[in-house]
Design a protein that fits this description.
Blueprint lengths: L5 E3 L3 H10 L8 E3 L8 H20 L3
Parallel strand pairs: 1-2
């Protein structure tokens, strides 16, 4: 099943490190601004919509 990882910019370095530890240092992931936990539903929807191009690129190999 195709999947895409999405993380906030606060965790980019951790995501890169984890990918490298797992043997895939170039593993692609989408990045959204941090934080997301305190957002309203409308703000969270806007962040998700902004991430769609990144996610589509990951899923289609366009990175």
């Amino acid at each position: 099943m195709p999947a895409a990882v999405i993380c906030t910019d606060q965790f980019v370095e951790s995501a890169r490190a984890q990918a490298a530890i797992c043997g895939n240092p170039h593993y692609p992931f989408a990045v959204v601004p941090h934080p997301i936990g305190s957002l309203t539903p409308a703000e969270l929807k806007a962040r998700a919509e902004a991430a769609v191009p990144q996610v589509l690129a990951i899923l289609t190999g366009g990175r």
